[in-house]
Amino acid sequence: MTVVATYPDSTKASLVQRLRARARERWPQIASLQIRHRGVFSYVDATLTDATTLKLCRLRYVGSASQWQFAIYRASHDDYDESVFFTGVSHAFLYGNPDLRARIEQLRAQARPQPVPPSHTNGDNTIIQALTSQISHLKKQHRDQTQALHAALEQAHGENLQLRRELTRLGWTGQPATT
Question: Which of 82, 111, 140 is at the close of a domain?
Answer without folding.
Answer: 111
